[in-house]
Structures are given as C-alpha cells and as structure tokens.
Specification:
This protein has about 270 residues and is mainly beta. The protein contains three helices and 16 strands.
Length: about 270
Amino acid sequence: MMILPIDFFPLKRLLAIVLMLSFSQQVIAALEENQSVESQSIENQLVEHQPTKKQCTRHANYDIYLSGIHTGTMKRAENWQGKSAVVTSTSKASILGIGTQYDQRAELSWSDTTEEWITERFHQLVTGFRARDMKVSLSKDGLESEVDIDGDIDRYKSAHIPLRDVDTLAIQMRQLLMQGRSQFALVRQASDDIEPYQLYVKPTIKATIEPWGEMKLIPVEQSGAEEVTYYFAPDMDYQLVRARYHGFILQGVIELNEYNSTCERLTQ
C-alpha cells in the first residue's frame, strides 16, 4: 500500500476547520479553578485588558469528532459587560496522530451605527501542528485589519462587510437568526487572507443532543472557502449546539455536551 505524503490529504484544511469550529476551538482552562499549569502558561500569554466586572457569562463545552471518531475537546467562555464582551476559547485535538492546541482571546463590541457586533482585536496562539502566534487589530468599523503573525505584519481590507474573528462570527450569526434573517453574508479574518461566506437559514429540524434529549434546531448552511452546517437551538437561547464540516474525504463534527449561562435569555 502506498502511503501518500500528508499534503495529499485535506488535513491542513481540516485542522483549520477544527480550529474554526471552536467558536473557540473551540479548553478554557484559564477560566476554571482546576486548570493545569500548562494551560495557565498559555492563557497568561493571551490576557490583555480583561474587564474587572462581568455583567454575565456563558460557558460551553464541545466534543470534536472526525469521521465518527472522538478526536478532541473544545471549551468557550463569553464574558459580557454591557455592549462589549471578551470571548476566550480553547481546543485540543489529535488527528492521525498529529496534535494541536488552539487558544484565542477576542474582544468585541456592539456598533450603534451599523447595529452589529464588531471585532476590536483578537490574539490567537496555536501550538503543535500549524503553530503560530497571531495578533489582529481592527478599525472601528471593522473594514480594515492589521495582522501580526510571529512578527510578520500584513494588512487587509473588506469593501462592505466587517472582518471578524471566528467567535464574533458565531455571535453575529446568532444575532441575525434572532432577527429572523433567512440569508446573510459574513467575512472572516483568516491568518493569511480574508474569507467571505454566504449563509442560508434552513427549515427547523428535530434532533437528539445529549444530555438534553430531543430539541428543535435551526440549520444554517455556509458556502465559501469552507462548507459548514451550523445548528442553533432556539430553546437554548439560540446557542450553537452542533457544527458539521463537509469534506470530500473526512467529515468533522463538533457537538455541545455542557452549557451554562448567567445571562438573561435573548440578550447579547
């Protein structure tokens, strides 16, 4: 049997998607009392301007599956203060024996001018496969960005749609669903490009999500650089409970296994 070099597989793209799906990637060990020393070290590199007062918080834990095999975990925390938030997310995954850990801290706020959530800045640290230290700052309207990856700086522009990190994308997607939108466009600031997506809201379905049992889910299909279907639960305050990456060879899935919130329903 011939063994192909790893670049012949869509592994790099898949790992990027696994990181993206973390909405997080999506372990927030630094926000938990039982965090490890290693996780503390990584989190300390990401902490900048943390608000001292938190209006409310949301925590979500996910499992990562690759073609039906459990390959990792994700944890994500939203810390809200009025019309701004700090989102900290982490994931750990091992695919075909290749391990990676992703930590991100994003700051976002509500724009009264355009009535949408805008990323202000985010810091992403990836260790293991595709390791990088990425710091991004964005203009007030979100249309321009400065990306610093390991000291190399690039700048990007978007004509009309604000550039966002993956966590702000998830929050904005939820906001548009709550407004009853049936389709919309979003743009992600990736490490070496900007990635436009078109998203389409599909009819509500029913599915079993443990430990909550059967619930109603709203599928949102994404086309663009990656094809992904997101599933939001209206009865759980429109939170993301599942996401499925559609690859030609490998299929990636994340699914919520734990969620708690001190936020009022249908806010933020």
